[in-house]
Amino acid sequence: MLSTGALGRWQWERAAEKEALAAELAARSVQAPLAGAELQAALAPRTAESNPDKFLFHSVKLHGRWLPKYTVYLDNRQMDGHQGFFVITPLQLAGQDTVVLVQRGWAPRNFLERTALPPVLTPEGEVEVNGHLVAETTPIYALGSGQGEQGFLRIRQNLSLDAFRAETSLALAGLVVVQDGAPSEGLLRHWLPPDTGVQKNYGYVFQWFALCGLISGLYVWFQFIRPRRHRA
């Protein structure tokens, strides 16, 4: 009984921590875009000494040129209740070797021809990209390896920064940018807010406290109520 109550309290504390984290991430998203040394630190390759996670969900404004030959289409992604692709294109920053993976938006898939790529416009020349920082593209259960040409897979289930860096030899930044803004270039950007998993913790709170209440009720029944009924 005591252990179930303690577990319920622990889950309650974890939920409070996650709610505080969600509030902090929301506050970061409305701050001015990172610039200068902070932006360089956020986009530096991840190392044991660096702490890029402190920049997660901060807004950024980047200038550079797209590298469309490395565009990847992440399959089985939903937006507004429809299935399609998250379109990922590397952006080489202006005047730098650094390349940032940008989750540009969502595009519908062709259900009659599953290997067909959606029509997505990729502007040439220097572009401006407004977005926010995330650790990586959101992974899903891998259903297959994808479809590609000449060994480079265009359609994939997931995309790992480290694996993509090794595959392409690009000088990838340590974080990914999710592009914000109105629909454009054949892409939608109705992104959901970050899921900290707080609802799962509240579910566990209910589970452990309910179990604690059940054990308490059984204890009272068998130790006090039932013996008195037998003596009556």
What this model shows, in words?
The chain has a 5-stranded mixed beta barrel. The chain is elongated, with a radius of gyration of 24 Å. α1 (2-29) packs antiparallel against α4 (198-231). 34% of the residues lie in helices and 25% in strands. The longest helix has 34 residues, at 198-231. A hairpin with a 2-residue loop joins β2 (72-79) and β3. It contains 4 helices and 8 strands. It has 2 domains: 1-30 and 197-232, no CATH class; 33-190, no CATH class. It is an alpha+beta fold.
Largest sheet: 5 strands, mixed, barrel
Low-confidence stretches: 143-149
Number of strands: 8
Beta fraction: 25-35%
Structural class: alpha+beta
> Taking all residues together, what is the mean pLDDT?
81
- Helicity range: 25-40%
Strand order of the largest sheet: 1-3-4-8-5
> What form results from the Cα inertia axes?
elongated
Oligomer classification: single chain
Q: Termini separation (Å)?
A: 29 Å
The helix tally amounts to 4
Computed over alpha carbons, the radius of gyration is 24 Å
Count of structural domains: 2
H/E element sequence: HHEEEEEEEHEH
InterPro entries: Surf1/Shy1 (IPR002994), Surf1/Surf4 (IPR045214)
Family: Belongs to the SURF1 family.
Membrane topology: Multi-pass membrane protein
Transmembrane segments: 202-222
